[in-house]
Amino acid sequence: ASLALSADSQQRLLALLNGMPNGVIRMSDAVKGVVETSLNLGVVITGESEAEIICLIRSLIDSGKDYVVNMLIALGQLAGAKVVPQSCYPGWQPDAHSPVMHLVRELYQDLFSKTPNIMVIHAGLECGLFKKPYPHMDMVSIGPTITGPH
Q1: pTM of the model
Q2: Exposed, middle or buried, 59 (CB in 10 Å: 0-12/13-18/19+)?
Q3: CA-to-CA distance for 27 and 43, rounded, in angstroms?
Q4: With 109 labelled, which of 3, 17, 26, 94 sits at a CA distance of 20 to 30 A?
Q5: How confident is the model at residue 146 (pLDDT cuts 50, 70, 90)?
Q6: Where are the beta strands (DSSP E) in the chain?
Q7: What 8-state DSSP symbol labels residue 91?
Q8: Residue 94: per-residue pLDDT
Q9: With left for phi above 0 and alpha for psi between -120 and 50, is residue 102 left, alpha or beta?
Q10: Closest CA relative to residue 61, chosen from 120, 149, 146
Protein backbone atom coordinates (compact mmCIF):
# COMPACT_ATOMS: atom_id res chain seq x y z
CA ALA A 1 0.00 0.00 0.00
CA SER A 2 1.19 3.50 -0.87
CA LEU A 3 1.99 5.81 2.01
CA ALA A 4 1.81 9.03 0.00
CA LEU A 5 -0.90 11.07 -1.65
CA SER A 6 -1.64 9.77 -5.11
CA ALA A 7 -0.88 12.03 -8.06
CA ASP A 8 -4.63 12.61 -8.47
CA SER A 9 -5.02 13.49 -4.78
CA GLN A 10 -2.07 15.87 -5.00
CA GLN A 11 -3.62 17.65 -7.99
CA ARG A 12 -7.03 17.89 -6.28
CA LEU A 13 -5.39 19.23 -3.09
CA LEU A 14 -3.47 21.88 -5.05
CA ALA A 15 -6.60 22.84 -6.99
CA LEU A 16 -8.56 23.11 -3.75
CA LEU A 17 -5.87 25.28 -2.13
CA ASN A 18 -5.69 27.51 -5.21
CA GLY A 19 -9.48 27.86 -5.31
CA MET A 20 -10.00 28.52 -1.61
CA PRO A 21 -10.59 32.11 -0.57
CA ASN A 22 -8.12 33.53 1.93
CA GLY A 23 -8.40 36.93 3.57
CA VAL A 24 -11.26 39.41 3.55
CA ILE A 25 -14.53 37.92 2.33
CA ARG A 26 -16.78 40.90 3.03
CA MET A 27 -16.53 44.38 4.51
CA SER A 28 -19.13 45.58 7.00
CA ASP A 29 -22.08 47.61 5.72
CA ALA A 30 -22.71 48.88 9.25
CA VAL A 31 -19.20 50.09 10.15
CA LYS A 32 -17.15 51.73 7.40
CA GLY A 33 -13.65 50.32 6.96
CA VAL A 34 -14.20 47.28 9.20
CA VAL A 35 -13.95 43.71 7.96
CA GLU A 36 -17.19 41.82 8.54
CA THR A 37 -16.12 38.32 7.47
CA SER A 38 -12.73 36.79 6.76
CA LEU A 39 -11.10 33.42 6.27
CA ASN A 40 -7.53 32.51 7.18
CA LEU A 41 -6.21 29.41 5.45
CA GLY A 42 -3.76 28.83 8.27
CA VAL A 43 -2.27 25.34 8.25
CA VAL A 44 -1.97 22.44 5.82
CA ILE A 45 -0.96 19.11 7.37
CA THR A 46 -0.05 16.29 5.03
CA GLY A 47 -0.11 12.74 6.30
CA GLU A 48 0.79 9.44 4.74
CA SER A 49 -2.41 9.16 2.75
CA GLU A 50 -4.43 12.29 3.48
CA ALA A 51 -4.17 16.03 3.97
CA GLU A 52 -5.84 18.35 6.45
CA ILE A 53 -6.47 22.05 5.86
CA ILE A 54 -7.13 24.14 8.96
CA CYS A 55 -8.89 27.47 8.49
CA LEU A 56 -10.09 30.17 10.85
CA ILE A 57 -13.30 32.00 9.98
CA ARG A 58 -14.15 35.26 11.72
CA SER A 59 -17.26 37.35 11.30
CA LEU A 60 -19.20 40.04 13.11
CA ILE A 61 -22.34 38.11 12.20
CA ASP A 62 -23.00 34.38 12.34
CA SER A 63 -24.56 34.36 8.86
CA GLY A 64 -21.20 35.51 7.47
CA LYS A 65 -19.47 32.50 9.02
CA ASP A 66 -22.25 30.21 7.79
CA TYR A 67 -21.77 31.55 4.26
CA VAL A 68 -18.03 30.77 4.33
CA VAL A 69 -18.59 27.29 5.82
CA ASN A 70 -21.09 26.50 3.04
CA MET A 71 -18.62 27.79 0.44
CA LEU A 72 -15.87 25.55 1.86
CA ILE A 73 -18.20 22.54 1.92
CA ALA A 74 -19.05 23.12 -1.76
CA LEU A 75 -15.36 23.49 -2.70
CA GLY A 76 -14.55 20.36 -0.71
CA GLN A 77 -17.25 18.41 -2.56
CA LEU A 78 -15.81 19.52 -5.90
CA ALA A 79 -12.36 18.33 -4.81
CA GLY A 80 -13.64 15.08 -3.30
CA ALA A 81 -12.70 16.28 0.19
CA LYS A 82 -14.58 16.09 3.48
CA VAL A 83 -15.14 19.39 5.29
CA VAL A 84 -15.51 19.18 9.07
CA PRO A 85 -16.55 22.50 10.64
CA GLN A 86 -15.14 22.98 14.14
CA SER A 87 -16.09 25.37 16.93
CA CYS A 88 -15.52 29.09 16.59
CA TYR A 89 -16.27 32.41 18.23
CA PRO A 90 -19.88 33.49 17.67
CA GLY A 91 -20.37 36.85 15.97
CA TRP A 92 -20.73 39.99 18.05
CA GLN A 93 -22.23 43.00 16.30
CA PRO A 94 -21.32 46.52 17.38
CA ASP A 95 -23.99 48.61 19.10
CA ALA A 96 -23.37 52.36 18.79
CA HIS A 97 -26.17 53.01 21.31
CA SER A 98 -24.84 50.69 24.02
CA PRO A 99 -25.45 52.19 27.50
CA VAL A 100 -22.47 50.23 28.87
CA MET A 101 -20.18 51.65 26.17
CA HIS A 102 -21.27 55.20 27.00
CA LEU A 103 -20.76 54.56 30.73
CA VAL A 104 -17.28 53.13 30.11
CA ARG A 105 -16.42 56.17 27.96
CA GLU A 106 -17.47 58.54 30.78
CA LEU A 107 -15.59 56.60 33.46
CA TYR A 108 -12.45 56.43 31.31
CA GLN A 109 -12.59 60.19 30.73
CA ASP A 110 -13.03 60.80 34.46
CA LEU A 111 -10.14 58.50 35.39
CA PHE A 112 -7.60 59.43 32.69
CA SER A 113 -8.71 62.92 31.61
CA LYS A 114 -8.79 61.87 27.97
CA THR A 115 -11.25 60.35 25.56
CA PRO A 116 -10.89 56.60 25.02
CA ASN A 117 -10.33 55.29 21.51
CA ILE A 118 -13.54 53.35 20.89
CA MET A 119 -13.52 51.17 17.79
CA VAL A 120 -14.91 48.07 16.20
CA ILE A 121 -12.25 45.45 15.48
CA HIS A 122 -12.25 42.25 13.47
CA ALA A 123 -11.13 39.62 15.97
CA GLY A 124 -12.37 36.65 17.94
CA LEU A 125 -13.61 38.14 21.20
CA GLU A 126 -15.05 36.44 24.24
CA CYS A 127 -18.01 38.83 24.12
CA GLY A 128 -19.45 36.76 21.27
CA LEU A 129 -19.36 33.70 23.54
CA PHE A 130 -21.34 35.54 26.23
CA LYS A 131 -23.74 37.19 23.77
CA LYS A 132 -24.90 33.89 22.30
CA PRO A 133 -26.55 32.50 25.48
CA TYR A 134 -27.42 36.01 26.77
CA PRO A 135 -28.52 37.93 23.65
CA HIS A 136 -29.82 40.96 25.58
CA MET A 137 -26.67 41.45 27.66
CA ASP A 138 -24.93 44.77 27.00
CA MET A 139 -21.15 44.55 27.01
CA VAL A 140 -17.88 46.05 25.86
CA SER A 141 -14.41 44.65 25.39
CA ILE A 142 -11.47 46.65 26.71
CA GLY A 143 -8.02 45.86 25.43
CA PRO A 144 -4.49 47.22 25.24
CA THR A 145 -3.04 49.39 22.52
CA ILE A 146 -1.49 46.96 20.06
CA THR A 147 1.00 48.11 17.45
CA GLY A 148 2.44 45.74 14.86
CA PRO A 149 0.54 42.59 15.95
CA HIS A 150 1.99 40.51 13.15
Answers
A1: 0.79
A2: buried
A3: 24
A4: 94
A5: confident
A6: 23-27, 35-46, 51-59
A7: P
A8: 82
A9: alpha
A10: 120
